Amino acid sequence: MIFGAILAGGTGQRMKNDSLPKQFLELCGKPIIIHTLEKFWTCTRFDAVYLGIHKDWIDYMLDLIRRFLPDQKDQIIVVCGGEDRNSTLFNVIDRVEKDHGVSEEHIIVTHDAVRPFVTLRMIEENIDAAVKYGAADTVIPAVDTIICSNDGKTIASVLDRRQLYQVQTPQSFQISLLKNLYGTLSEEERGLLTDACSICTVRNQPVHLVEGSDTNIKITTPGDLKIAQAMMEAGA
Amino acid sequence: MIFGAILAGGTGQRMKNDSLPKQFLELCGKPIIIHTLEKFWTCTRFDAVYLGIHKDWIDYMLDLIRRFLPDQKDQIIVVCGGEDRNSTLFNVIDRVEKDHGVSEEHIIVTHDAVRPFVTLRMIEENIDAAVKYGAADTVIPAVDTIICSNDGKTIASVLDRRQLYQVQTPQSFQISLLKNLYGTLSEEERGLLTDACSICTVRNQPVHLVEGSDTNIKITTPGDLKIAQAMMEAGA
Questions:
Q1: How big is the CA angle at B19 (ends B14 and B25), to the nearest 5 degrees?
Q2: Which CATH number fits the domain that encloses residue A66?
Q3: Taking Cα atoms as reference points, which of B103, B61, B55, B57 lies closest to residue B81?
Q4: Which of B200, B201, B209 sits opposite A153 (nearest CB)?
Q5: Which residues of A touch B (CB under 8 A)?
Q6: Domain tally for chain A?
Q7: Has residue B143 got a pLDDT over 90?
Q8: A155–B200 CB contact, under 8 Å
Q9: ipTM of this predicted complex?
């Protein structure tokens, strides 16, 4: 079976907004997370979509689903988020397996709640790649020159940009594969590998690349919100 | 002596604008390159500011200077750009040395014409670092997770983001140091090292880091132009 997992465990300190976490801010009259959910809903291959939500905002989210997506409310399951991104993800996985049992065929397509410009093409290619290869990551070629500094004071090396990519989401996995790999990590590794694809690569599990887009932006600052508004008004 | 070098050698194909290169597009009623020049003008330590401009646009640029910066027109020198960024930079350096002679004390602060949100603090710290260490680069900590792929199909490694920085400008150099290092490069290396800081690092010349800002954006797409407009209206 194929599951969506939209991750919104955070409370959005970077937005400088005292009340609403960024995923709930409105774009063209609708909360960002609803736009994101609607994009997932354009893909007909999901058996259910799970939302990892910070515990303080679960009731608020349930209310949004009733208001904006009443027809889908039985296929959208809200799960309590964890301390960090990976624990939110594994809370969702636990709930998937509680609802649908353990199977090597279960695929999970994880996505940032604050990336509402994801496309159906990216979602479909994530599913296909996760089915075929076990793990997939959505990326774009690095835009800026990237340097490495060991001390934060001088450049150690200028990296070869032709081999570098910026990570977006979705990131998609065979659930059993990801769980098995996570089970082999030490506590220290779990703290360091905050990106789920890292869990694969440190254990030599290939992660297939899916082509993202520079429009698939992550809305984390007030400036991002402005550009997202302009993009949405322009029909992105 | 201390010189500015604002680089605008390109003709801006990424902007999808048939007529005007991006550095000439207007933000709040003034061309982007004029905003950038005005930022340089807030620093009183420059003996002159050079502009590297594509040959087709030199007359246009001279006209803009007469219109927007009539009082500074004798201290702003327009130089013909080259085939690529480095050749534009070395065209400027040749002109500096023609105008002011060769000296180990000459410092050049290079900057993208399409980064009008550079601050006086960044410019001052660039000058100080170039005087003290010979070379300086303006950077911000990497925002996205960065992965490396050798084949463009699967992830080879997820890089440790804590050591990665995205390069902005200004980039600043002791002119004699940069020229000497460039003189040691092979033709092939010159083709590969499109970032002037790379010229230093491949020859083990330390490049000191100056703290940039996420507002110091490079305007290269229509989306960037929209966000720049919003930022400028908000007083950035």
A1: 70
A2: 3.90.550.10
A3: B55
A4: B209
A5: 133, 137, 139, 142, 144-150, 152-159, 163-168, 195, 197-198, 200-202, 206-209, 214-215, 221, 223, 226-227, 230-231
A6: 1
A7: no
A8: yes
A9: 0.89
